Amino acid sequence: MTETASTTATPLKDTGFGKKSAGPVEWLDDRLGLAGAVRKNIRKVFPDHWSFLLGEIALWSFVVLLLTGTFLTFWFQPSMAEVPYTGSYEPLRGLEMSQAYASTLNISFDIRGGLLVRQIHHWSAALFMAAIIAHMLRVFFTGAYRKPREVNWLIGIGLFALGLIEGFAGYSLPDDLLSGTGLRFVDGLIRSIPIVGSYLEFFVFGGEFPGELIIARLYMAHIFLLPGILLGLIAAHMLLLVYHKHTQWPGPGRTEKNVVGFPMLPVYAAKAGGFFFVVFGFTALMAAVLQINPIWTYGPYNPSEVTAGSQPDWYMGWVEGAVRIMPNWEFTIGPETFSLNVFIPAVLLMGLLFTVLAIWPFFETWATGDKEEHHLLQRPRNAPTRTAFGVAGMTFYGICWIAGGNDIIALKFNLDIFTITWICRIGVFVGPVIAFIVTRRICISLQRKDKDTLLHGYETGVIVRSAEGSYAEAHAPLPVDAAYALSARPRVPELTAPEAEDADGVRNPQGRKARLQAWAKRFFFSHDIDKPTQAEVDDAEHHFHGDVYPPDNFPDDFTGVSETGVPKHH
Fold first, then answer.
1. Torsion angle of C-alpha atoms 60, 63, 65, 66, degrees rounded to 10
2. How many CB atoms lie within 10 A of CB 493?
3. Which of 71, 172, 231, 532 is most buried when burial is the number of CB atoms within 10 A of its CB?
4. Which residues lie closer than 8 Å to 336 by C-beta, 6 or more apart?
């Protein structure tokens, strides 16, 4: 006879540990009200879609940056004091260099695992910025920044801007010839600011470039000031995400008032925790097999030298490209020199970028007249003008990015650097316009296809012959779920402009503003293809049953065949 173990578990509150913990926990709950907040959000539902992982990649990359950065601070010395190198890298031994550069070499060659951790840190920084940009593009193209998430969009803009500054500060710390060349570039940007540029340079560098303080100042900003602000913004971003609830793609059962997905505990927390290890493992794999920033090949920074073919990290390359293609616009008024060839493409362009990104949600609200709350995402094709603007911006960025490597492109492909420069100069004006027109036409064509699919069904691949001898491809109506996903979007609004005067000839005091807003609304919506009306759907359903091969003859699990005749699934 065997003894059967009891399957009844003892509640945690009745265990010894639970009874001992009850007092302190109750004391904290009485003063902080934590139990109610946890109980309310522990079952918070999050939707499940691969595009939502982009934000998580940025979050976990930042965590990896914090962990690896903490490791590196134990050995890095943020000093520009000159010392002879006595480390194990033989080609540089005995050479005078800053303590910052010497300590970075020490981390790379003399600290166990130091090079791996340094490369994980650098790859994580690149992945962090890539994930932020991809996440922001996803938010932009799907309209996830609309009411009530405008503040969260502004927080995202702040994270993007601080990420650029944090990345620049990080790759400037080793004080090698490449990072010093980047610092010289930024010094030029600061000095190009009219009137106050030279004063700002002395303030930032503690004197004339390069000074003796910039590495220490960048170090404090990199490990303390900027990460603290980033942590605060990320916390605010996550809190607003929970407060507003997560956006979701249209589909059966999904409305503006609910969220369909998995609860925070245990499902989503387990998936998110596992995804952290995926991000960490992937970054570590890249660091182990893909070399990045080999500072020992550049040597210590010397203000009289410049690294041949120097390139910034990819997320800052577009700024350098804009400077390279800018004409030499420079003039002098009295004692002041105005270097517009640097100020306009770098300082002014970056300021313009972040200003446009920040005001876009409010501009779109004004232009479209849409003041409703939105928790369902838009397919990019259903917002053709917004999508076209986004692709135009990406085209401008890409051309500037190409211009940032015009010397490398000319060298590797044996091309004329001046030809490349002029192509990019013309391309930054022509390319975005072409991209805007083509993208909007593609989106409108896809809208037309969606409407046709809703009305006439999908192509089955079955060719039938009528009694008269003509051939046609049989269509079958979409499944209900697929049809709902295609039609779950608002109708195109009315595009009528208000009258400038009423019937009595009295001028409308708001007429000019209203007409401008009406023009903006027409610009956004006049080309859109509206979804079918109920009458059109009923008429199409009637015609389905008059087809040569009515859809009732298809098996229930039939979803068409491919071009090779193989059955496929939607």
1. 180
2. 13
3. 172
4. 194, 195
Residue 300 CB neighbour total at 10 angstroms:
22
Question: What is the token pair recorded at 498?
Answer: 């208000």
Task: Compute CA distances 53 → 133, 240, 258, 382, 443, whole Å.
Answer: 13, 17, 20, 23, 25
- What digits encode the pLDDT tens for the residues 216-244? 999 999 999 999 999 999 999 999 998 88
State which amino acid sits at residue 156: G
Where do the DSSP E strands lie in 363-489?
A: 458-465, 471-476
Cis peptide before 84 (omega within 30 of 0): no
Q: What residue ranges define each of the domains in the chain, with the CATH number in brackets?
A: 48-378 (1.20.810.10), 451-545 (no CATH)
- Cα separation, 347 vs 345, in Å, equals 6
Q: What is the enclosing helix (H) or strand (E) of 181?
A: helix 177-191
Task: For the chain, give the number of residues.
Answer: 570
Question: Do the beta carbons of residue 109 and residue 88 sit within 8 Å?
Answer: yes
Neighbours of 400 (CB within 10 A): 23
3-state secondary structure 191-217: HCCCCCHHHHHHHHHCCCCCCCCHHHH
pLDDT digits (tens, 9 = 90+) for 7-30: 455 665 667 666 666 677 677 666
Crossing angle (nearest 10°) for helices 417-456 and 384-403 = 160
CB burial readout 345-375, b (16+ within 10 A) else e: bbbebbeebeeebbebbeebebbbbbeeebb
CA distance 48 to 45: 10
Query: CA dihedral defined by 68, 73, 75, 81, rounded to 10 degrees?
Result: 140
Q: Which of 217, 196, 245, 329 is nearest to 47 (CA)?
A: 245
Output the CA–CA distances (angstroms, integers) from residue 88 to 107, 109, 177, 302, 466, in the order listed: 11, 7, 20, 22, 84
Which pLDDT tens digit goes with each residue over 491-529? 888 777 666 666 666 666 666 777 888 888 889 988 889
Q: Which two tokens stand for residue 408?
A: 């490398």
